[in-house]
Amino acid sequence: MISQIVVIVTTVKLLFIPLYHSTDFEVHRNWLAITHNLTLDKWYYDNTSEWTLDYPPFFAWLEFVMSFVAKHFDPQMLYLTNLNYKSDMTILFQRLSVIFLDFVYVYSVKRLSSFIGDGKLLVFILLMSCPGLLMIDHIHFQYNGFLFGILLYSISHIIENNCLIAAFWFAVLLNLKHIFLYVAPVYIVYLFRAYCFTISSVDGVHTPWYSFSLTNLFKLAFTVIFVFGLSFGPFIYHIPQILSRLFPFKRGLCHAYWAPNFWAIYNFVDKVLQTIGTKLGLLRIPRAEASMTGGLVQQYDHAVLPSITPTMTIVLTVVTMIPALIKLWHLCADRRYRVLSFVRCMVVCAACSFLFGWHVHEKAILMILVPLTFLSVLGDVDGKQFLILTTVGNYSLFPLLYPKNLFSIKFFILLTHVALAFVNIRTLYEPAKVKGGRRIRVLRLPMLRQIESLYLYGLIVLCVYDNAIHALWGLDKTLPFLPLMLTSVYCSVGVIYVWLCYYYYFLTFNVSQVPTVCSVNLAEKYKKTS
Amino acid sequence: MTRRADPDKFTVTKQALLPGILFSLLVRWCVAAYPYSGYKKPPMHGDFEAQRHWQEITVHTPVLKWYHNTTQNDLQYWGLDYPPLTAYHSLLMGLVADWLEPESVRLFASRGYESDSHKTFMRWTVFLSDIYLYVTAVLCICIDAERVLGKEPKEPKCVLKRTDISTTLFLLYPGIILIDYGHFQYNCVSLGFFLWATFFIIAIKNDTLATIFFVLALNYKQMELYHALPFFFYLLRKCFIGMPLGRGKLSHFVRCFNKLAVAVIATFVIVWYPFLKGWEHIFQLVHRLFPLDRGIFEDKVSNVWCMVNVFIKLKTIYSNQEMAKTCLLITAMAAGPACADLFFRINIKKFVPCLINVSLAFFLFSFQVHEKSILLAAIPVALYFPEDPFMCFWFLLVSTFSMLPLLLKDGLLLPFIASTVIYTSFYSICLKLSQPNSGYFSIFNANRVNKIVYPNKKDSSHVLTFLSLIFVISVVGMVLLTVGTVFVKPPPHLPHLFPLLISAYSCVHFLFFFFYFYYQQFSLPMCLPCVSQKQKRK
């Protein structure tokens, strides 16, 4: 059935070709032109367009390779000064390149889902129909599917205990898009514990320091350094310039649309306090700097609460990650379940970075969602948290596709995916028929508690407000950014809730209480390969 | 694909229903993002402009002037030529449009009005009509198909009769999606009413409600006359059933018949009420509905007359009047046997095949046929799908393909290909659900497909193998013709070469299907429908 599903999903992607695309389309076109026309040493200096190259070198090489195919579609798109050029052939080429590179993702998903017992096909369908990826890659325009394909491929090798290959592919991934640094600590801890110590554990708790293998460490280090050398070697004299492009700390705390993270709530509280303060006459703030959601990426000082600096966000992120990493170190002692713990820890750490990071894009929610989708059939808590997060997280991406005529498309993409998830994940955990009278569950979603269901229903209200009532009340003139702010704040509540629950679940996870409801043949797989 | 038994261990329950329906709605919206007919093509635009114009007319002129040529209502510019229910529907939507975006329905000033928000609005009107009438009707019919199955536990369960699968498959049929959401029409309304009427006949067996809904369908689009004969003969025959022995036969018949007659007349009166103020209004309306002067066909239609026209120029030799009479006679001859069979050898299972046969007869032989009219034959075929998936799927593919010239004109090539591929893939999934070891292209194997319906049949028949071969050839032909139409430039002296080839190709198919479904209908035995209510009353 896999081939049919791949065909269906790919066809839907094809249908999206002539739809709206964001400025990222022009960004990638510009990069094609830069890499095609300029010599290596100028790639990271060119600023003909405002969309300068700010991905690591491997991605630039990818664009370089693609530009040779692009030449056959329409050579004009490769002119450096041809800004905002979008002929039909250009659109066709760019869209097809995304769809074509997505087959990496398809392959990895197929590989990954083959490790699962029950719900194999379900995971495949859920990952293939991930609304975030469909919306961002195929309407908004980016190459996330390809990147996540490599991430999943790397994870699949971790599951098979091929640590070196996994490390290699993760290093490649880091050199394609540096946002995956978010989960790098998980890889470091895991590889160090699971690969550099040859004996897993004696009693399951203490670390057998004597079994530390220097050879393995060297192998690992060599692999990673080799990849980085390959990537940055040609640019050896331009590394400071590249780094300044890759990590633009000059940008603000939040992206144009607030990502639904901790800072969204922080800003919101600041905003509310400011309004109350001015109303009561306690504060005097010049009106000019009152807009933070103005769509411009720039620095901003908070009015009431202390302003946030990049260092603070980094410290906060690291501090929140540390407990999870320590837990992972201990969980790695058990051979059978350490791969699952690895993926779980990846979810937690991605969530930490997402919530507390500096200038987080809303698209980064996919880094939490994609691994969590894989876990959704492997444990009831995972499944439950996945259900909440997939609804909230994907909903929070809606503002990205703002044209009105896209509303129904994104709405039905999400609904289809959510319906698939809600009706099918339940069947894995809940007994088919409860003996004795069925409890009446008014408006309660499967597997969720009443309050969580209500929260998700709140999204419908929010959706109606944002798309209809706000304009009907005429507020779109005076408060144009209110819907965006409401969406981010409302969604961030859900994301933080999921993060807290999941963090608690991960920290209290005890290997002796492994879920018995679903059969995981990961352990068997592990035995076979090792 | 691996050949192990059920490698995916995926148990689809009825719970695939919700995702399936939502997915089919997603496909609808994806198609809706494409241009409509006559998009940015002044001065006449296309069907979209016609619908918009009707809203403008119905909102701004009095009811009695809707069908008359007045200074405010220029009938030459997309005059209203559908029955009153369409006009009321337009009025309703027009009032909403007037509230949301008054510019779009301003009298005269709004001609050729095009804006993104208005397009979105119009798409939403189709979508809501679709949801309320067509989707619900399909859902009810499919639920009933499974319910009937539940009553007969001996019969092995057929995948295509499961509610979720059959509903999704029905809703994904590309033809109606492309015409309603791409080209822009409201076929979902008339076909929705028609499906409701069918539902009341085959499931609930409530003849009065069926009559009312069918009259509503007829009052939305006069094209529903294609379906009128089976309804008429079936309901008429039912009046003869349950007659008391001895005396009172006539009164029983009159009572049954009267019930239906009252329903028909009452519905007609209600719908036509505003026009009943004088005969001239009614005549004008009827004249608008059946314009004899528009010729035997427009553009290239895959029916018999269009084929004959290649060799004998019908339009020049015969007058429209003569042609109309000939058409009427031949259509009656083609549809007659099916109706007679339904009447004399009544069987509720014959109702849907009879609908197919009669509507195909009308499509192939009647006067003034549009290429979109194939939908009227395609929807009964989609109803018949679970009984004979192989042939029905083939028919539905051809029916979509026959509209290709029209779709190309509207710039809907990509949606055409995509929705067809999605439909085929989903059908392939159905096959895989019933036979886990089948591959993607097992749909071409008639023997295998027929095992879904008759799982107990072991041996494969040569006829079916032969049919499979023809199916493959037919699909390859369709693909080649599509490629040819898109990429090959026709010779200058034959500009309409490819549309004509497509019509001819589809027409040959439709004739073949016509005979096939006739055979299917006649091979069903007679079986009196039970009339339980009346027996109880006795």
Automatic annotation (TrEMBL), chain A:
Transmembrane parts of this sequence: 91-109, 121-141, 147-172, 179-200, 220-240, 252-269, 303-325, 337-358, 408-429, 454-475, 481-505
InterPro entries, per the entry: Glyco_trans_ALG6/ALG8 (IPR004856)
EC number annotated for this UniProt entry: 2.4.1.-
Keyword Endoplasmic reticulum: yes
Pathway: Protein modification; protein glycosylation
Coiled-coil intervals, chain numbering: none
Keywords noted in UniProt: Endoplasmic reticulum, Glycosyltransferase, Membrane, Transferase, Transmembrane, Transmembrane helix
Single GO molecular function: dolichyl pyrophosphate Glc1Man9GlcNAc2 alpha-1,3-glucosyltransferase activity
One biological process term in Gene Ontology: protein N-linked glycosylation
Membrane topology: Multi-pass membrane protein
EC class of the enzyme, as a word: transferase
Domain of life: Eukaryota
Keyword Nucleotide-binding listed: no
GO CC list: endoplasmic reticulum membrane
Compartments it resides in: Endoplasmic reticulum membrane
PANTHER family in alphabetical order: DOLICHYL GLYCOSYLTRANSFERASE (PTHR12413), DOLICHYL PYROPHOSPHATE GLC1MAN9GLCNAC2 ALPHA-1,3-GLUCOSYLTRANSFERASE-RELATED (PTHR12413:SF2)
Similarity comment text for this entry: Belongs to the ALG6/ALG8 glucosyltransferase family.
The name this protein goes by in its record: Alpha-1,3-glucosyltransferase
TrEMBL record, chain B:
Gene Ontology cellular component list: endoplasmic reticulum membrane
Family according to the record: Belongs to the ALG6/ALG8 glucosyltransferase family.
Gene that encodes the chain: LOC118274450
Gene source species: Spodoptera frugiperda
Regions that span the bilayer: 121-143, 164-181, 193-218, 257-276, 350-369, 414-433, 463-488, 500-519
Stored InterPro entries: Glyco_trans_ALG6/ALG8
Pathway field: Protein modification; protein glycosylation
UniProt KW keywords: Endoplasmic reticulum, Glycosyltransferase, Membrane, Transferase, Transmembrane, Transmembrane helix
Protein's membrane topology: Multi-pass membrane protein
Protein name: Alpha-1,3-glucosyltransferase
Keyword Endoplasmic reticulum: yes
Signal peptide start-end: none
E.C. numbers: 2.4.1.-
Coiled coil region boundaries: none
Subcellular location: Endoplasmic reticulum membrane
GO MF annotations in UniProt: dolichyl pyrophosphate Man9GlcNAc2 alpha-1,3-glucosyltransferase activity
